[in-house]
Haloacid dehalogenase (Pseudolactococcus hodotermopsidis), 168 residues
Amino acid sequence: MIKKDFPWLYDAEYMSYVGTLLDMPEVQKLDEFTHHYISTRLLHSLNVSYTAYKITKKFGWNQKATARAGLLHDLFYYDWRETKFDEGSHAYVHPRIAYQNAQKITTISKLEKDIIIKHMWGATIAPPRYKESFVVTFVDDYVAIKEWCQLMKMKWKYRKHLKKEKAI
């Protein structure tokens, strides 16, 4: 295992906030779902959680709630490209499902609830109430863009091979 790829494993303070959650089967199950084509939902959530944790720690904000809610912000178990909801779009529905699932495995504070429910602000109307919620919202977008760029880089690198496969 390369330290630079999984820095959260070597951060004792961060792990003290999320380690118990990470050991839960409900959270581990996220590793079974592809997220943004290049990652798993668990790795995506860990990247969001750890990056947001480092930012809030730097500013002296609530890094514990940020780390926990960042990890739980996408705690849902379906392929969002294939699932439709009567209640609204995936951007509206999945944070509420994630919050309900998070409540089943741990106590969620008001701050953590706001972070989870509002992390899709921009795609949804209601703005976050807390600065930590804004951090997770923007970090979630940043990580998603980073994942998309990795996918594009891979496609570019292997474009000749992909063209040959399409021709067959």
User: Anything to note?
Assistant: The helical segments are 12-22, 25-28, 41-59, 63-72, 90-105, 110-118, 131-157, 159-167. The domain at 7-167 is CATH 1.10.3210 (Hypothetical protein af1432). The chain has one domain: 7-167. The two ends are 37 Å apart (CA to CA).
